[in-house]
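Re: the request from the purification team.
They wanted to know what the chain is likely to look like in 3D before they choose a buffer screen. I agreed to run a prediction and write the result into the notebook, where they can find it.
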Amino acid sequence: MSVGGFGTLLYPESYGFQQSSRYDPARMDSNLPSEPIEARAARRFRTAIAALRRGAPVVVTGAGGAEIALAAELATDDLLALTRQWASAAPGLLITANRAAILHVLPTGEDVILLPLDDHYDAAMIRALIDPTHDLDGTMRGPLKRSKAAVTTPSRTAMELVKAALLLPAIVAAPLAADEAWAEARGIAVVSVEEIALMAEAGAPPVLDRVVAANVPLEGAEASRIVAFRPGDGGPEHLAIVIGQPTADAPVLVRLHSECLTGDLLGSLKCDCGAQLKGAIHTIAEAGSGVVLYLAQEGRGIGLVNKLRAYRLQEQGFDTIEANERLGFKGDERGFRVAAEMLKALGFTTIRLLTNNPDKVAALEAEGITVAERVPHAFPPNNHNESYLATKKKRSGHYL
């Protein structure tokens, strides 16, 4: 099968892409012979994520060869045609087992399911399959046929890329008819299975840099400073709000708070996040000192846009966990390794944890943080979040 040129179809102005003679991935790699393995992996990982978020294809390499992958949410008919042109076999649609169950695809015991994409599948049909906010708009599709072929390691690993890009967990993938050098020569982002695994392991990159600390007086806690930490993979920064002068002489009072723009900033009544954040700052200030870790893990790790999709599903009667699962995610996609690394960087390994979530206690202890005490941290419900809090208690085992 002939393999066409990348620039002629993927870089017209209508796509918003521009080729640049200043950036040649192959030449860059050759000019960095001493680049640390982790640094190279982080660079290629984030480059691939950026490509997926703007709708461009990426190539994932592994022991079994190279595969071309598209974020299914952003696929277009032109890109699907281009993928078929570049591929050595017909592409497939990969979705999670949670999403497959909603579409009545018979289970396989696998966490990723492969659906064959015949030529009649266009971008609109693919989006209809993967976006659950439209499930109740018409007749449910199914049962669909799954592919008899096994899901390859590059395809399975590419799903982690799409999740890291905060897009719906679904990809269009096909074996590449060319090789890695061909892809890099055309400006296509290339990343290996090993590099993705290194960056995605345990929910946090292996390197976390302390960037800056500044005094920031807060309402109710004027003696506060904010310490910014930047992940080595170039992802969003996480913040430590240090209140007072905590020391390691005794267990430090700590709250892990995943960012929630709607609750923390806009005052949404659908959750208890805003109350938990303000309450934690107040509680720690009253205690004299402690730390609030403000983690860039919006929507239990699925991102703001997908959280809004989940809200749309909740309007249709699904609870917060069911909504995440219909999107194709787990009920909670967060990892707390980054929180443990931040605490260690601040010099604290024994803490008193403000939480109602037993999973946070277990996750921190698994990363070498001793939780000497779990301190309850609950607030009265309102008319809008009663069901949400009941779900956290019943489905996630929160102490409420």
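For the purification team: Residues 6-202 form a domain with the DHBP synthase fold (CATH 3.90.870.10).
Please add any questions underneath this entry.
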